[in-house]
Specification:
heterodimer; A: 115 residues; mainly beta; 11 strands; B: 114 residues; 4-stranded antiparallel sheet
Chain lengths: 115, 114
């Protein structure tokens, strides 16, 4: 069975500092990997995804993530945090089995950005 | 608005009542997924439907919960005889089924059981 572990349920950074949110996955087949962002009382918005090809993936709002098969990781980074980045971030994995796009999510990491 | 529409956004029910949550997918999407989000937890998969078919209900509780996606109209998640533990945010997502890997999420329905 697939699973996702997000290290750190809460991360706090200063505005302008590097953002690093960690995600490790478990999958028996080559995975599709995703990062979603959730603002308070809203749904989830896709930040970026990895399916095949280049292992460094760029997303919206200046975020990027690198797929490292040897480490089974897909950490999310942003060079310089902005106040508007404060939200909850979810890492997810899918194997596309049977044509399904069913995602397995991590428990989420709440990002706080301090002025 | 061409996104996933969920209603109601907030629903309050007393124990024992029924809750019905509706989801209209992105126009043209025929695949619908329901997820439940409990406090301090991620989203848990409940059910995956295509028009008139339940494809995967491995995440649905065995009792009181049901889902449908009729040929016409929205998908409905129905919870009978609600209990306090059903209080959660329920999210619907849709896809076009092209294995793009992207699900489009609605803003959720927040159920509170008194």
């Amino acid at each position: 069975a697939q699973s996702v572990t997000q290290l750190g349920s809460h991360v706090s950074v200063s505005e302008g500092a590097l953002v690093l949110l960690r995600c490790n996955y478990s999958s028996s087949v080559p995975p599709y990997l995703f990062w979603y962002v959730q603002y308070p009382n809203q749904g989830l918005q896709l930040l970026l995804k990895y399916t095949t090809g280049a292992t460094l993936v760029k997303g919206i709002n200046g975020f990027e993530a690198e797929f490292k098969k040897s480490e089974t990781s897909f950490h999310l980074t942003k060079p310089s945090a902005h106040m508007s980045d404060a939200a909850e971030y979810f890492c997810a994995v899918s194997d596309g089995e049977g044509g399904s796009e069913k995602l397995v999510f991590g428990k989420g990491t709440k990002l706080t950005v301090n002025p | 608005n061409a996104g996933v529409m969920q209603n109601p956004r907030h629903l309050v029910r007393r124990r024992g009542q029924e809750a019905r949550l509706r989801c209209s997918p992105v126009k043209g999407h025929s695949h619908v997924y329901w997820y439940r989000q409990l406090p301090e937890e991620g989203l848990k998969f409940m059910v995956y439907l295509q028009k008139e078919n339940i494809i995967d209900e491995s995440g649905m509780p065995k009792e009181r919960f049901s889902a449908e996606f009729p040929k016409e109209g929205p998908s409905i998640l129905r919870i009978q005889q609600v209990v306090r533990g059903d209080s959660a945010a329920y999210f619907c997502a849709s896809s076009g089924g092209y294995i793009t890997g992207e699900l489009f999420f609605g803003e959720g329905s927040r159920l509170t059981v008194l």
